[in-house]
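Case study B.
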Amino acid sequence: MTFEVVMAGFGGQGVMLMGQILAYAGMVHGKQVSWMPSYGPEMRGGTANCTVIVADEAIGSPVVAHPYAVVALNRPSLDKFESAVRPGGVLIYNESLISTPPTRSDIKVVAVAANQIADELGNVKVANMVALGALLEVTDLVPMECITEALKKALPAHRQDMLAVNLAAIERGKQAAEIP
Amino acid sequence: MSERVLMKGNEAIAEAAIQAGCRFFFGYPITPQNELPEYMSRRMPQVEGTFLQAESEVAAINMVYGAAGAGARVMTSSSSPGISLKQEGISYLAGAELPAVIVNIVRGGPGLGSIQPSQGDYFQAVKGGGHGDYRLLVLAPANLQEAVDLVTEAFDLADLYRNPVLILGDGLLGQMMEPVLADLYRNPVLILGDGLLGQMMEPVEFRKLPKRELPPKTWATTGMRHHPHKNIINSLVLDAPGLEKHNLHLQEKYARMKLNEQRAESLHCADAEVVIVAYGSTARIAKTAVMSLRQSGLKVGLFRPVTLWPFPVNALGELVPKVKAFLTVEMSAGQMVEDVKLAVNGARPVHFYGRMGGMVPTPEEISSECVRVLGGVR
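Model:
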């Protein structure tokens, strides 16, 4: 089984970190993982994105043209990657910043108000974790305890107090993506 | 749970160098390899090593010459334009037979080019690059675990052959080398990678490889406390017969490298009608293409040179009678394809597919090119 996820947003929305958390959690879960960032001048102002692959077997190409899932945190990212999602795949979009919903009908589309939920939690910076929660709910990529361990590793010693709000954000994201 | 750590390629290469005993790093910043010197600047003081950001690439490579001459394990890294600037120093290292490890995380060219991944420096790496008749051992890792293992090996190989080693980005691990005579071996080693290898993250494990018997560095310029004679390190031989003799000695060393150091990996080649030849990141992308073509029942394989110099002509040659055609894939206009053609020597068609300027081929592109070649041979 191979899951490819492209995560995209404005530089500063935390898409790189969100991808690293997922890759780290996959590694803790005993999977093969890779994380490939877009890098270059596009990071400043435009969209930044990363590709995370979680697989049972050794990973070949770290870049994919048609990922299984896309997480789009802003409008330019949705415009760029909506058409790339593999038929039958998953598209998670941040409806706080994207007013026009995606049009694809051959994929599972999930709207999450990531910024609004993060605001409610008192820290807009965790919007990325809300989106990650939605992805985890829809795909079952890695168990929650692996994500928790990854977060503990990713947060520097003096930021461990942020663990709770990050976990809360993931939980709210999961709830938002639940099928009623 | 496991000892694997998730690291960026550039950082993993740096840590592997430190664990291999590298205690001197000289460099000058350039994207996409900046995380490597950045990591070194943090780690070297912790292991009582020296990190120095030189005033230029030319200065950095000559500092490498000095440290290597004193017998230290030393590394420098850069990306394409920076490696071009280092060529004079690399030629001097090869001429003076100094062991060093040089990392090139290749970006799009020519000129300042772009900062995206490329394999356009193949010719520079394997055909010389600098002036004079010399060769570097060129290693091309394809994933981060291999990069880590090859860096460890690169330092040993450099000491053995007393030659700079270039790591050009893709590698195979754990292959044993035959024991060799000390004085005939000392060479720079080049590790050739690209932006993909440098920027991506993968889990890596810093494992202990089998210890290799290495000769003492009796040639190093460490003062006369330990021996009565003067050691002199030099690449200037004004007397023509003397310089020819030195060149013959170098050529003999390179011949031994050709004999002992060819490395390659084959995947699904046993019954393949078409074999893709690719190295480094392109090889791992091609691997995805091969796996999906195999699922469709198509007989295709992958041949991946791990040493770009010496080129694995023996292993590739063995495939020639079994295969109908070859398809070389590179992130260049077609450079390694010339070595593939030399090895195949006209016995089979050798096709080429390449992307340039920082464009990375997709598995789908490689697959459809492979299907086209397959259609032609049936």
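The CA atoms of residues 41 and 143 of chain A lie 35 Å apart. The remaining cases will be described in the next quarterly update.
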